[in-house]
């Protein structure tokens, strides 16, 4: 049974994942994969557009929030507050076309999620496509 599992992983999973060697390829795979279409939260698409440097698309998504994200707002559900507070930080640099500011936010968030986790030893911080545009 274990040998069958290894064979399937090598044949299917690795073959699918090996070409995903850049941030752009990984994010485009995730957002176009049939299994994820309709299941990713709108803020995932917003942050993905920012990371890929698709700032016009990100600004269009941000405009649809119609002022929902305000730094002084306290949510009724405390568990949602950290993500809400993060998203509040996006508006000013996004609307100002501040690529450096947006990249700094993304790198900080990435580090906050990785440092101290079991993935940290394997993590290599890389530039986002946003920084190359």
Averaged pLDDT: 89
Q: Helix/strand/pairing class, anyone?
A: mainly alpha
Question: What's the assembly state of these chains?
Answer: single chain
Fraction of residues in helix:
55-70%
| Largest sheet data | none
Number of domains: 1
Shape: globular
Strand percent estimate: under 5%
Total beta strands: 0
Radius of gyration: 17 Å
| First-residue to last-residue Cα separation | 48 Å
Distinct helical segment count = 8
Order of helices and strands: HHHHHHHH
Ranges where pLDDT stays below 50 over 5 or more residues in a row are: none
Can you describe this structure in just a few lines?
It contains eight helices and no strands.
How would you describe this protein?
This protein has 133 residues and is mainly α. The protein has one domain. It contains 8 helices and no strands. Helix 3 runs antiparallel to helix 4. The longest helix has 16 residues. It starts with a helix and ends with a helix.
Secondary structure layout:
Layout: H1 2-17, H2 23-32, H3 42-51, H4 55-63, H5 81-88, H6 91-95, H7 99-114, H8 129-132
Attribute tags:
59% helix, mainly alpha
């Amino acid at each position: 049974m274990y040998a069958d599992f290894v064979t399937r992983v090598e044949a299917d999973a690795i073959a699918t994942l090996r070409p995903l060697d850049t941030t752009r390829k990984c994010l485009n795979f995730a957002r176009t994969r049939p299994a994820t279409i309709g299941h990713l939260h709108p803020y995932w698409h917003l942050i993905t557009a920012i990371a890929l440097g698709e700032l016009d698309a990100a600004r269009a998504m941000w405009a649809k929030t119609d002022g929902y994200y305000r730094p002084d707002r306290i949510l009724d559900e405390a568990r949602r507050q950290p993500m809400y507070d993060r998203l509040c930080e996006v508006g000013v640099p996004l609307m100002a076309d501040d690529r450096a500011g947006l990249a700094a936010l993304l790198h900080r968030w990435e580090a906050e999620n990785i440092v101290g986790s079991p993935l940290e030893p394997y993590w290599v911080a890389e530039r986002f496509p946003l920084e190359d545009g």
